[in-house]
Amino acid sequence: MRAMIFEGTGRPLRLVERPVPEPGPEQVLLRVRACGVCRTDLHIIDGELTQPRLPLILGHEIVGSVERVGSAVTGARPRAAHRRALAGRDLRECVPTVGQEAKICVRWRVFTGYRIDGGYAEYTVADHRYCFPLPDGYDDAHAAPLLCAGLIGYRSYRMAGDARRIGLYGFGAAAHIIAQVALHQGREVYAFTRPGDEAAQQFARELGVQWSGASDRVPPVPLDAAILFAPVGALVPTALAAVRKGGRVVCAGIHMSQIPTFSYSLLWGERSICSVANLTRQDGIEFMAAAAQQRLVTSVETFPLVAANEALARLRCGEVKGAAVLTMEQAQT
User: Fold this and answer.
1) What is the dihedral of CA 8, 13, 18, 24, to 10 degrees?
2) 3-class SS letters over the chain
3) 123 closest CA partner among 70, 168, 76, 62
4) Is residue 82 predicted with pLDDT exceeding 90?
5) HSE, side-chain direction, 13 A CA sphere, residue 48
6) What is the mean pLDDT of residues 191-216?
7) Mean pLDDT of the chain
8) Can you give the pTM of this predicted structure?
9) What backbone torsions phi and psi does residue 283 show, to the nearest 5 degrees?
10) Which of 20, 129, 186, 234 has the fewest CB atoms below 10 angstroms from its CB?
11) Residue 332 pLDDT > 50, yes or no?
12) Which residues contact residue 235 at a Cβ distance below 8 angstroms, ignoring those fewer than 6 apart?
């Protein structure tokens, strides 16, 4: 099979030939049909996530068809050729969180596209327990952003509680999906982009948000909650200033730049800050049901597997409208 491998910080991905992997007892072998390009991949390439297994095949937003199943896969076994979507953070050694039904992982044993090979390839293996059937109505490329961008976005949205007015900082792959979920539920959405990014602001308005503008602007009304999809620590005090007393700021990224010192007055008034560390299988089940019911529109720009470096470069520069997705039609033989 062909794969794009990462060999170290500062080096472009390289196209190689690899044997097709064999699934372990609890795994399935997926023939990759599409794989989303996530900002987490850039954090790995840039050395901001410091423990990748090298050489590594990146990619955790994987849409694939089941080719084979492992010997211990029981119950509702995925059938060959059926599409499955992989939620790439397979978590172990988890502890309950105080006052919540979910659990927080204290150590990743497996993280697809970081600790084990992922979807920038023609085939990959995955834990069957983290593979979800995809809703009808989405082709492979448009389904890929539902995974991670949609799933982590959905968990971040849930952590915003019953906020009526929600600000989304960074209007890319995750925000353009979650904005639709929030609008469908009758909430008001305020979209914040990089200063000068008129295209992203117009994109947000086309989806129906109440307001869009630069991230350094004050929204026209106080927000009940803000979700930070942009991995920019300086936005934390900015978002705190934008939410009302009792409001919440949710940091959705797996990595964020340094948060600057800020006045306690921004936090005072029972405002709060929280982060999103992982998702649960229940999150995946609920979000896939919502995606099927609401017919979420995912905006994608597709690239062949061999153009993975170009896709990453365009994502880094903020030049992708919605999500970048690698498709395998031009790569498979």
Assistant:
1) 60
2) CEEEEECCCCCCCEEEECCCCCCCCCEEEEEEEEEEECHHHHHHHCCCCCCCCCCEECCCEEEEEEEEECCCCCCCCCCCCCEEEEECCCCEEEEECCCCCCEEEEECCCCECCCECCCCECEEEEEHHHEECCCCCCCHHHHHHHCCHHHHHHHHHHHCCCCCEEEEECCCHHHHHHHHHHHHCCCEEEEEECCCCHHHHHHHHHHCCCEEEECCCCCCCCEEEEEECCCCCCHHHHHHHHEEEEEEEEECCCCCCCCCCCCHHHHCCCCEEEECCCCCHHHHHHHHHHHHHHCCCCCEEEEEHHHHHHHHHHHHCCCCCCEEEEECCCCCC
3) 62
4) no
5) 13
6) 96
7) 88
8) 0.86
9) -55, -45
10) 186
11) no
12) 169, 215, 228
End-to-end CA distance of the chain: 8
Residue whose entry in the numeric block shows the structure tokens 């061999």? 306
Residues 148 and 63: beta-carbon distance below 8 Å: no
Residue reference for tokens 């590594």: 56
Question: What whole-number distance in Å separates Cα of residue 21 and Cα of residue 27?
Answer: 11
